Protein 1
Amino acid sequence: MQIDFKEINIGIYIRQCITERGIEISRICNFFKCSENEVNDMLCKKSTDTQTLLHWSKLLEYDFFRLYTQHLILYSPPTKTRNPEYKDTLPKFRKNIYTKEIIDFILEILETGYKTKGQIMAEYGIPKTTLHKWISKYKK
């Protein structure tokens, strides 16, 4: 599945996953307890609610939430130091977890000459040593 992390249109990715897995529309209708028209409406949407996305992830055995996580990793601004008096009660996640898809995405940008190493490091906040490690380990 080719992914554009800058612009996420979830309906397109769900439709692509359905095609790749060969899932019958009748099975989808039964799973969601809805009509074929309602399924097609879902597939035409650019975004969807989290409960519906969770159902799609279960049905298609693909973590669609990860698309958004990878977008955050690549495009969110650097975190600032928070006020020490402020207590976070939500779970904390590491931002620097790079998946194979992100690594491939970055190396493709570099390989095609779309961006230089310096631009990639500046725009995505990827450390120089990490980028060089990826180049030596994954470059084709």
Protein 2
Amino acid sequence: MAQARAHAFRVSSSRPAQPFFSAEEAWLWFWQCQIARDEGARFVADAGAVARPCDPDDLWRAALALLRRRLIDRRHLRVLAVFGRRLTPPDPRLAEEAVAARLWDDALDRLTTPLRAKGIVA
């Protein structure tokens, strides 16, 4: 007997999807969407200027999957959230952001592999 797939691919746009250049670009896009959602925006598929190969929540789920697999820890996730909400990466030249910059780079490096595998990052 054939089994149903747990996660079926769904087409959200009739336009060709443009993957993100990097995990950082994708992560900051997720936070732009999240901030707009927090402010009351409602998302409609295929309404953006550029068709993306994922939903914003796919990025959050990918980060949580890394946390569950212990490839990142809560410090990484906290840095991704704090600086993501600021829509700017931490500045490694600032002493108070140097540790955060290392965690940011490490987390995004680990996030790149699953995002690339899913076609979210080119």
Protein 3
Amino acid sequence: MSTDKQSYKDKKVMTIGIISEITGLSQRKIRYYEERKLIFPERTKRGTRKYSFSDVETLMEIAEQIEDGVQTFEIKKEMAKKQTRDERNKMIRGQINAHFNIKK
């Protein structure tokens, strides 16, 4: 996705301290979710983690599921299923658009 067309929600501009304040999650917990490959911050050249508003939403969903007793490996499995569905739906939309010559 090019930076020009990237949604403001997906721009990685916030540090872990800000994310911790917004979500109420400790920085340690946020790093743990990254270790478990549930969240994927970008890194600056100096190694600072940068997060987006989409990451905030993901972290809040993870926190709610953890509160409900869902294990991190189960969350990761569900996230992978959702990503596969989203990719399949995007491909199908593209095929339909191509078939009917629909331009975005």
